[in-house]
Recover the amino acids of this structure.
């Protein structure tokens, strides 16, 4: 079986080479048959990699410990579900997983563009897809072969998977992140296809518009799931720590966000062509850099202490790809130059430009700071660490700037806004923003006892930033409500519909626009959650049986310790009762625990427990326990507003589903009614996504 | 190349350099140096006062916990493979730490403690990271773990 897997990998590599060659030759000789054959090649790569990946999963499920990779990342006692998903538990398998997802995306893209659609740019698009696939294949068949077996006698059992990875978030977080990462590869391939062929109008972006949204939402959800995992599994009480591996996923998210905004300017006004191409190239390069950082251990991180030898391969591939892309843009510079410029700085396109600059700056900053320790070590051979304080210093103002643009942008008109429209658009939201800001200051003084809002260096303090954030959140909400309200009222007047009916039909007539507003609303909710960070409470207590400790508006009482064994691990669980402060009203029982795994050797995990509420979570960590004295050392935290982050993510997914919901009468369907099922399945996919969003919101 | 291209390249270079300057300038205030235990032992006096990260192995049977508190004291010795000052090989640094230690903190574990060196030669840490000492991890050197 492992041999078959390896042979499939070799075969895939050969077919990649053939496919790329067929596409190039077919394009230059004008042979349609060869180009069609190249498209078949993309499907073949998809088929072969699917088989190879299924074989690897199968090896995990049956527990073939003669395969090194399987032996390293699983063992007999693991539940079946985690055995199957251990496929992406380590480097070799996750690279196979990467290229497998890539082949799925590529096959879908080629299927969408079968026949005459985008005929001109498809050949070089396919070449680019194969170029990326080949890079990963060359790694898989040489240094990171997941099917490598032991030479001598095979071990009878595996070493087990890191228990931190054995939970639902780790099953869903990497695939979601990878779908997002690799989702950005396809628009990049189309961009290179368009550049190589010279057909540089809006068509390639138009056919990639939904792709980009899908990639963007997958990356966003992947980031959120990673945050949830950190929050629930790592037990330090937060969801984001500017760890290099988190940054790795955040960097392409920033430039990708810039891209999906600035392509709207190209669609409307035909400018920003070069800018958009650069953004998609940068986004792709950053996804590669991100994969390299997560996988090679080039950057030291709490996720990966270990070093690996694939970094150099990645770097060379990255530089070659970047060089070719930039060279192509310079080669086509004349054709790309804008025929017209910006008309006014008080226009939506200018707001988009500022948004792009800020996002690009943020991406640059995060990348630089993440790589800085490695560069510093290479130059001075001293090791340093850049802590979260540095990121927060820069990224909080950057985030607030972006948040305010979320409100300002949609209020400005294209081309030029007059003073009168500006007043008309801004007066209500700005007043709401100022009132919320004042309310936030009063609230933080009265509820949280804040006293300083400005630090001695004239920067806002944590509480100052929180009040500013909440004020801006009020402003953004007001702009969104105003947009919906004005649209609904005009539509109700014009069509004589009832207000609610007008609201629904308004949204469904301009799904992209109103879906976008819902996404903005979700982002705003996330910022509310971020603001809550300023009001965190934390205590460490060694608690005797029956002792009560007060945190926020709750009393926590330690009841007893419970010892259990389920075959895979020993568990020590502390049982605690939660009361409303000063009363005997019991709200629930919390059970933070420590789990001692048999495999991998002596692994211990800390299982947190929390009491959820919209005002904030009570978050308990069992630090240590004393069986003799019957005491438990507990870390008690109160995380205000944290659930707004997850709620915001749910709205973001819902807004995405609205934005990409298929139109009722698309041009494609008029000519090909057979494709109805595609529309239906796309509809169902969006529907399921929104259900998932709701489930996420509720739990 | 047209004039416009040069203009763009020039402004990108200008903005890039000034930003890099600003960023590195603020970064120097926030960054922490990493010093392996042998360096700290060999030239300890010069490191007093500044906050840095100390790395090394926990000496066997050196972990003490003050009963009824979260105060820990343990010794950290140099990691043989990374040694720059061989004269420090048999010496160690005493570390004091208050708080919950990570699950992987035990005898022989590789630790990174963040804090300051006191004038009496002890290191007072406010943060503690630890890596499992078992053979499992040692053999894993070539594999990234997520």
């Amino acid at each position: 079986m492992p041999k078959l897997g390896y042979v499939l990998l070799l075969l895939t590599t050969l077919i990649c080479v053939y496919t790329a060659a067929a596409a190039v030759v077919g394009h230059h000789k004008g042979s349609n048959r060869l180009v069609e054959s190249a498209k078949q090649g993309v499907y073949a790569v998809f088929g072969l990699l699917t088989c190879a990946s299924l074989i690897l999963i199968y090896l995990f499920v049956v527990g073939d410990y003669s395969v090194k990779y399987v032996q390293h990342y699983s063992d007999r006692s693991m539940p079946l579900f985690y055995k199957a998903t251990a496929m992406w538990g380590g480097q070799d398998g996750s690279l196979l997983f990467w290229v497998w997802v890539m082949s799925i995306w590529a096959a879908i893209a080629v299927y969408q563009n079968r026949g005459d659609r985008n005929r001109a740019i498809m050949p070089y698009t396919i070449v680019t897809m194969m170029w990326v696939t080949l890079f990963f294949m060359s790694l898989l068949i040489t240094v990171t072969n997941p099917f490598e077996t032991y030479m001598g006698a095979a071990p009878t059992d595996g070493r087990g998977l890191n228990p931190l990875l054995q939970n639902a978030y780790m099953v869903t977080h990497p695939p979601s992140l990878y779908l997002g990462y690799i989702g950005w590869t396809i628009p990049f391939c189309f961009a290179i296809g368009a550049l190589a062929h010279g057909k540089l109008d809006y068509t390639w972006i138009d056919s990639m518009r939904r792709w980009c949204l899908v990639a963007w939402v997958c990356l966003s959800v992947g980031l959120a799931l990673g945050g949830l995992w950190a929050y629930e599994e790592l037990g330090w009480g937060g969801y984001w720590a500017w760890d290099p591996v988190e940054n790795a996923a955040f960097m392409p998210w920033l430039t990708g966000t810039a891209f999906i905004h600035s392509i709207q300017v190209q669609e409307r006004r035909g400018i920003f062509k070069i800018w958009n191409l650069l953004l998609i190239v940068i986004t792709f390069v950053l996804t590669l850099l991100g994969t390299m950082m997560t996988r090679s251990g080039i950057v030291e991180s709490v996720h990966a202490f270990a070093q690996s030898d694939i970094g150099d391969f990645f770097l060379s591939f990255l530089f070659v790809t970047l060089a070719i892309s930039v060279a192509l843009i310079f080669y086509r510079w004349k054709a790309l130059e804008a025929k017209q410029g910006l008309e006014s700085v008080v226009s939506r396109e200018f707001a988009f430009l500022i948004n792009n600059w800020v996002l690009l700056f943020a991406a640059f900053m995060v990348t630089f700071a993440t790589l800085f320790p490695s560069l510093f070590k290479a130059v001075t051979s001293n090791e340093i660490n850049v802590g979260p304080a540095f990121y927060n210093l820069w990224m909080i103002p950057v985030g607030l700037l972006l948040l305010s643009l979320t409100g300002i942008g949609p209020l400005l008109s294209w081309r030029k806004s007059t003073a009168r429209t500006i007043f008309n658009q801004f007066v209500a939201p700005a007043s709401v923003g100022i009132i919320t800001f004042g309310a936030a200051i009063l609230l933080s003084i009265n509820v949280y006892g804040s006293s300083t809002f400005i630090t001695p260096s004239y920067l806002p303090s944590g509480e100052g930033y929180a009040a500013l954030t909440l004020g801006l959140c009020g402003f953004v909400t007001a702009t969104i409500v105003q947009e919906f309200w004005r649209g609904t009222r005009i539509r109700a007047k014009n069509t004589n519909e009832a207000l609610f009916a007008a609201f629904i039909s308004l949204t469904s007539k301009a799904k992209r626009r109103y879906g976008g507003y819902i996404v903005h609303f979700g982002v705003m909710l996330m910022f509310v959650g971020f603001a809550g960070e300023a009001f965190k409470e934390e205590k460490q207590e060694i608690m005797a049986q029956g002792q009560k400790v007060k945190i926020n508006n709750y009393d926590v009482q330690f009841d007893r310790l419970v010892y259990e064994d389920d075959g895979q691990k020993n568990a020590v669980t502390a049982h605690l009762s939660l009361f409303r402060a000063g009363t005997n009203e019991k709200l629930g029982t919390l059970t933070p625990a420590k789990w001692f795994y048999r495999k991998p050797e002596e692994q211990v995990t800390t299982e947190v427990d929390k009491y959820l509420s919209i005002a904030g979570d009570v978050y308990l960590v069992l630090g240590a326990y004393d069986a003799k004295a019957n005491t438990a050392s507990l870390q008690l935290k109160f995380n205000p507003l944290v659930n707004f982050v997850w709620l915001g993510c749910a709205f973001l997914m819902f807004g995405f589903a609205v934005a990409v919901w298929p139109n009722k009468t698309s041009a494609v369907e008029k000519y090909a009614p057979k494709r109805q099922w595609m529309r239906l399945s796309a509809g169902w996919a969006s529907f399921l996504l929104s259900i998932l969003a709701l489930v996420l919101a509720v739990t | 190349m047209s004039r416009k291209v040069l203009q763009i390249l020039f402004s990108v270079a200008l903005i890039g350099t000034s930003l890099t300057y600003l960023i590195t300038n603020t970064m120097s205030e926030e960054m922490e140096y990493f010093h392996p235990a042998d360096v700290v032992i060999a030239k300890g006096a010069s490191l007093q006062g500044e906050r840095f990260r100390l790395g090394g192995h926990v000496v066997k049977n050196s972990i003490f916990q003050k009963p009824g508190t979260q105060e820990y004291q343990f010794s950290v010795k140099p990691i043989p493979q990374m040694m720059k000052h061989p004269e420090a090989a048999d010496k160690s640094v005493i570390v004091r730490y208050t708080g919950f230690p990570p699950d992987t903190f035990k005898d022989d574990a590789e630790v990174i403690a963040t804090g300051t060196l006191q004038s009496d030669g002890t290191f007072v840490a406010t943060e503690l990271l630890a890596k499992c000492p078992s053979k499992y991890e040692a053999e894993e050197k070539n594999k990234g773990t997520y």
